[in-house]
Specification:
Elements lengths: L7 H14 L8 H22 L3 H6 L5
């Protein structure tokens, strides 16, 4: 297909569909954000435990805030 074979109306229709595809996704709920943060903290604690560090050592190293 040649660029010359596309009509102006077709090009405008395509740009309209691109805008729909680039729309921002819906904001996640507060509950979902808190759940994700809790999962990250749990995973972080598991990694610290597996490494053999104490909580105090992890804080000193800046791994816990």
């Amino acid at each position: 297909m040649s660029i010359n074979s596309i009509s102006r109306e077709e090009m405008q229709g395509l740009t309209g569909s691109w805008d729909e595809l680039n729309a921002t996704p819906e904001a996640t709920s507060n509950k979902q954000l808190k759940s994700a943060e809790a999962r990250r903290r749990i995973e972080q604690m598991r990694e610290i435990r597996e490494s053999g560090l104490t909580l105090e050592e992890a804080r000193e190293l800046g791994l816990l805030h």
